[in-house]
Every structure is written in structure tokens, then in C-alpha cells.
Specification:
50% helix, three-stranded antiparallel sheet, 422 residues, mainly alpha, 8 strands, globular
Length: 422
């Protein structure tokens, strides 16, 4: 009873419709006509009395997170990389989180939840693997990540088609998954009275913008077909996803990121960020996708290597499936390609071909710039911190932090050579 009261305290800050949603996600039905106090008491009783049932409804990511927290112990804080979306357990308040630091996503398991879940979480993970539900979940996430947003009925037909080819006519497991899966509940978007009934990747912030943005690419009529294995690869490792693994472009990206000193987890996070940022429409892609290069500028060593790294990223981005292109890549569709335009002065500017709103103005040359910095003794210091071959004779009268860098990289000055000079 004391335990139930503590759990009830977790739910008091939620509104009635939120409590109803939490109940549905955890596998128990709370009627909307119930009093809020009754909903809280019923949910607290269910969580404390039936851990095996509600754990069986948790997505793989939540169970893995819960397993790590149980291993760490009650009220032990863990620092994680910032996820692109919250877990079910965090959203429901069973796992506390703190994002105030800005560098880490901190999570902590309450003692009362630890005592309830600890004896059962390993069994729930083993059941998910053994039953095949984790595999289905990975494929679901994979298709959603590859497509971004897709009509719900089309998605169900797609899943049934692929599962029937894989499992045969017995689709009971799939139907059970669709009926109870909290993952699909979280990914389902619909509006009463409107023709809007979609499922979307949890990484998509604005599904409506994706759907409306597809009108710009009328030449892409149908969704690309992916194999079960491709979808599973794109849906593994929630909440951080990478696409196109195994391709020459992805292998080159992995090698480059490893050369910067990243371990396997760091490579995955970098490639996840690049995949996410590559979905953008306009020239801001230069400050997001290619930011990977500027952040590791001190490990690159030369402008030739810098340009090589830009090409590796551009090739990878152009090979990735785009939400706006219904799963097709820029190389396959001819749309949204990022091109690199080098010139004799080691300047390479990334430009999105479908982004007329963004352009890189040509830098101006200030006569006597080299003489000026030699006169005040700065040239020797600059030579020691800037990459070999930096064009000292190139300058403009003034470069604001958000202006394009005059070196021609296409990045903002503060993220490029302004970063070294600050």
C-alpha cells in the first residue's frame, strides 16, 4: 500500500487524458468517465501489482534503458547522449530525467520502481527477443525511418506483405503486435474529421511539413521498396538510427569518423546526426551536415584532407533515403543532391541543388592583408594554428559570426576559420 501511494504521487501532475494515454501504453484501460483520483489509484495499483504485464508492453528501447538503470541501482544517476525523443518510461514519469546541464541527458530510476521492475526486466527482454517482437519492432521503426511519414493503411499493407513473405500465412504475432504495441501508438498521427491518418518516425518533428513538402518533387510518385533486412538495419539501435550501412559511401564515412578518434558508439551518433540533418530542404544543410568537419578541424591537418572529408560527407548524404523523396536517395531520384564545387584556391562550397534561396557569395580580396598581419606580429601565431595552405592573402573588410566564411567552405564564419581565430 505504501508503495502504491508513492507511485500514485508520480501521476498526480498528469491530466485525465494523459493518464488515459499512459494506461493504454502500459496495457491497461482507464475509462475517461472515471474521476481523476480513481484513474491515478487504478494506474498505481496496476504498475505495482502487475509488472510482468506492463513490462511486456514496453518497446525494446525502454526495456534496454530500464535494464541499464536496474543494473546501476536505485536512485543512481546515469549520463546519456541526448536522445531525439523521450522514452515511454520517461514520458510517464517512471524514469526521472534532467536536461538542465546541456551536455548530457541524465536519467534516474526511482527506488519504488526499481523494486517493482528489477526481478522482471531481464525476463521481459529475453521474451522480446525470443518471441520475435523485437525484430518486428525494429522493422517497423526501420520502415518509418526510411519513409519518414506514411499513410497508416499503406503501412499496414506493407507490413503484412513483408511479414507474410517471411512468416507465411500465420500472422497472429503481427496482428497481436499491431493491437498492443505502444510504439505504434506513439507513432500514429490522426485528426478526427480530417483525412490525416499516418504513422511517422519518432525522429520526425513535423509530419505535416514532410507530407506537404513532397509536393515539390512530383516526379517521385511511389514509395521505394526496401527489403526486410534493410528495414531492420534502419530500425536497430533506438533511439539513434543510421541508414545505408554496408554501402561504399557509409564505409567511407565510418573510416573517416574513426580517423577522428571516435569509437563505434561515437561513429553511430555522428552518422545519426548527419542522417537527420540531411533531411533538410535548404542551404542550412551546410551548417549542419558539414559541421562534422569543422568540429574535427584540428585533426584534419590540411585543406586537401578537409576537402576530401567534405566529399565523403556529400557522397554519403546523397546516398541516403530522404523522407521528402519517399525513401529514394538524391542519387536515385536526381532531387535534393548536394554538390561540391572546388576551385584552384582550395575553396570548396557545398550547395544544395534544390535550394535557390541559399548561395555562397564570392569573397573579396583586401590588398596588403598579409603585410598588415606581419606588421603586428600575428602571422607567425596564425601559421601555427591554421591548416597548411590557408590563403592568408584573402580577406574581407568585416566578417560577422553568421556570415559565410571567406575560405569558401559554405559554413558560417563562427563555425569555420572564425572558430580558430576566436
Amino acid at each position: 500500500m505504501k508503495e502504491e501511494k508513492k507511485i500514485a504521487g508520480i501521476f498526480r501532475s498528469f491530466l485525465k487524458y494523459e493518464l488515459e494515454d499512459i494506461g493504454n501504453l502500459f496495457g491497461t484501460h482507464l475509462r475517461s468517465r472515471m474521476k481523476k483520483s480513481e484513474m491515478i489509484e487504478g494506474l498505481a495499483y496496476y504498475i505495482s501489482s502487475y509488472p510482468e504485464k506492463w513490462l511486456a508492453h514496453m518497446p525494446e528501447r525502454d526495456l534496454r534503458l530500464l535494464g541499464m538503470l536496474v543494473e546501476a541501482g536505485p536512485d543512481k544517476e546515469m549520463e546519456l547522449d541526448f536522445p531525439p525523443y523521450p522514452s515511454v518510461l520517461e514520458a510517464a514519469g517512471l524514469v526521472d530525467y534532467d536536461d538542465s546541464d546541456g551536455n548530457f541527458h541524465r536519467v534516474r530510476l526511482r527506488k519504488e520502481i526499481f523494486e517493482i521492475a528489477a526481478p522482471y526486466v531481464d525476463g521481459a527482454i529475453a521474451d522480446g527477443e525470443r518471441s520475435g517482437f523485437f525484430d518486428i519492432e525494429r522493422v517497423v521503426l526501420g520502415y518509418l525511418n526510411l519513409y519518414g511519414v506514411v499513410d497508416f493503411d499503406y503501412f499496414i499493407d506493407l507490413m503484412v506483405d513483408y511479414c507474410e513473405n517471411r512468416f507465411g500465412p500465420d500472422l497472429l504475432r503481427l496482428k497481436e503486435y499491431f493491437r498492443y504495441s505502444p510504439l505504434l501508438k506513439l507513432c500514429h498521427r490522426s485528426e478526427p474529421g480530417k483525412l490525416w491518418n499516418h504513422v511517422c518516425s519518432p525522429c520526425v518533428e513535423s509530419p505535416e511539413e514532410v507530407v506537404s513538402g513532397r509536393a515539390l518533387y512530383g516526379g517521385v510518385e511511389s514509395f521505394k521498396r526496401f527489403s526486410w533486412e534493410e528495414a531492420m538495419a534502419a530500425g536497430r539501435n533506438a533511439p539513434f538510427f543510421t541508414c545505408g550501412l554496408g554501402s561504399p559511401e557509409a564505409s567511407a564515412m565510418e573510416d573517416m569518423l574513426h580517423s577522428f578518434g571516435n569509437d563505434d558508439n561515437g561513429v553511430m551518433l555522428e552518422m545519426h546526426d548527419i542522417w537527420m540533418n540531411s533531411q533538410m530542404l535548404d542551404g542550412d544543410i551546410a551548417d549542419t551536415v558539414f559541421d562534422t568537419v569543422t568540429r574535427y578541424g584540428d585533426r584534419i591537418g590540411s585543406l586537401d584532407r578537409y576537402n576530401e572529408c567534405l566529399h565523403i560527407i556529400a557522397d554519403y548524404v546523397n546516398s541516403l533515403p530522404k523522407w521528402l523523396l519517399k525513401g529514394y536517395s538524391p542519387e536515385e531520384s536526381g532531387y535534393m543532391r548536394v554538390v561540391l564545387k572546388p576551385d584552384p584556391a582550395y575553396r570548396t562550397a557545398p550547395v544544395c541543388e534544390d535550394s535557390p534561396r541559399w548561395s555562397m557569395p564570392r569573397p573579396t580580396i583586401s590588398e596588403g592583408y598579409t603585410d598588415l598581419i606581419e606588421k603586428n606580429g600575428a602571422l607567425e601565431k596564425l601559421s601555427s594554428i591554421l591548416p597548411e595552405g590557408f590563403p592568408f592573402g584573402m580577406a574581407i573588410p568585416h566578417v560577422a559570426p553568421d556570415d559565410p566564411c571567406p575560405c569558401g567552405s559554405g559554413l558560417k564564419y563562427r563555425n569555420c576559420h572564425g572558430r580558430n581565430l576566436s
